[in-house]
Write a structure and sequence with these properties.
The protein has 183 residues and is α+β, with helices and mostly antiparallel strands. It is built from 8 helices and 4 strands. Helix 1 crosses helix 6 and helix 2 packs across helix 6.
């Protein structure tokens, strides 16, 4: 079994269990916001990522740091869940569990994730235009956008929704022109 499949096989039951608790306590959105913040922190802070993923660091240190990072306003159910992950030595799958939980939340809310690559930060009107386009493509009720910046696409955007990719970048247009000229 590959590492990614193993990670998903471990992450999915934990995410589903947490979703079950969240639904019964009407906390799905609150947990979603906490997991988005955690995902962002894991992406932006290599030190935090290395600390959480390091199997040598003792459990009490990890618990202490997680409590500090999550803050006093975090729901006790979510804190207890994170402490359980540390106790069960599953905290190394935190990123996958968070991603799986957010996917379950999107399914519950009939929301799709649009991964947008742009050459520069998008304006509000550009973001809204992408949301409208994705809604019409997917028939989703709502759209969650995850943006990354890549100056190499020169201009425009690349939008990925599930397995669909819309390449409206200048680099993609130039590539298509060169292919057409070559034939």
């Amino acid at each position: 079994m590959s590492g990614a499949l193993l990670s998903m096989g471990i992450a999915e039951p934990y995410a589903q269990a947490l979703m079950s608790v969240a639904q019964s306590q009407n906390l799905t959105e609150e947990f979603g916001a906490s997991f988005r913040a955690l995902e962002s922190l894991l992406e932006q802070s290599q030190d935090f990522r290395d600390f959480v993923m390091n199997p040598i660091i003792n459990e009490e240190s990890k618990k202490s740091v997680l409590r500090q990072v999550m803050g006093n306003d975090t729901n006790p159910y979510l804190i207890n869940f994170l402490m359980l992950l540390v106790d069960k030595r599953r905290i190394i799958f935190l990123e996958q569990i968070a991603g799986q939980y957010l996917e379950l939340l999107r399914n519950l809310n009939q929301t799709v994730l649009a991964e947008v690559t742009a050459s520069q930060e998008l304006s509000e009107s550009q973001t809204q235009a992408i949301i409208d386009r994705v809604k019409s493509m997917s028939n989703a009720r709502d759209v969650e956008i995850k943006t990354s910046i890549d100056p190499e696409i020169i201009g425009g955007v690349i939008i990925k929704v599930g397995s669909q990719v819309v390449d409206a970048s200048l680099r993609g247009q130039l590539r298509r022109i060169s292919i057409n000229l070559g034939s």
